[in-house]
Design a protein that fits this description.
The protein is α/β, with parallel strands linked by helices and 212 residues long. It contains four helices and eight strands, in the order αβαβββαββββα. The chain has a domain of 106 residues: Cupredoxins -  blue copper proteins (Immunoglobulin-like), CATH 2.60.40. A five-stranded mixed β-sheet has the order 2-8-7-4-5. The radius of gyration is 46 Å and the shape is elongated.
Length: 212
């Protein structure tokens, strides 16, 4: 019985260890490290803020993922802020403290929209800012750039030419159509008319001989 009890305890320990190992493997597999800007790093981009918006477009960020900001200490920093501060490039509505030592690793611990800026000089105004959407689980929604208004077709100027869709259709080119003369009577019609003419001419003669 002692051996069976010991064997059961060993099996339980192996099962527990296996469960912990699987959990660790799943956690490691679910965690993704995103290098912000890839080779560009965290700097003032030449293309303005659109450069980081393009980098984030189509990527999936989930809780537990890590953002790596590659920058030189004393030249740049990174601060998470609210949307209002992100738009105005101010640090008034900060989330946490400024990270001044690069490279910096930031763990995404909450779902929702996250905003990051550089607070040095006018770096943020020049485009050193990042906005992403973080999903609660891997495979959630991807980050998309801000929507832009649809281009509207301008109305025609007052007194100008009418819209092409409303203009009258042009007349077909070519000579003016002419009325065709009526077709000549057929041979049977001409024969019938000749008989009637002869009969009309002969009617007086027939009447003369009939009554005399």
């Amino acid at each position: 019985m002692a051996r069976l009890s010991g064997l059961g305890g060993s099996c339980s320990a192996v099962a527990a260890a296996a469960a912990i190992f699987i959990l660790l493997v799943n956690t490691a597999a679910a965690q993704t490290v995103h290098v912000v800007g890839d080779n560009m790093g965290w700097t003032v981009p030449q293309g303005g803020a659109q450069a980081y918006a393009t980098w984030a477009t189509g990527k999936t960020f989930a809780v537990g993922d890590i953002l790596t900001f590659n920058f030189d200490t004393n030249n740049h920093d990174v601060l998470q802020v609210q949307r209002s501060s992100f738009d105005a490039c101010t640090s008034s509505d900060a989330v946490g403290s400024v990270i001044m030592t690069g490279p910096a690793n930031v763990t995404l611990d909450t779902a929702g929209d996250h905003y990051y800026i550089c607070t040095i000089g006018r770096h943020c105004a020049a485009g050193q800012k990042l906005a992403i959407t973080v999903a609660s689980t891997p495979g959630g929604p991807t980050t998309n750039p801000p929507s832009t208004p649809t281009n509207m077709i301008p109305p025609p100027a007052a007194g100008g030419a009418p819209d092409e869709a409303c203009a009258p259709a042009p007349e077909a080119a070519g000579p003016t159509a002419m009325m065709s003369p009526p077709p000549p009577p057929s041979s049977s019609s001409r024969a019938f008319l000749s008989v009637l003419t002869v009969a009309a001419a002969a009617a007086p003669l027939l009447s003369f001989f009939w009554f005399n």
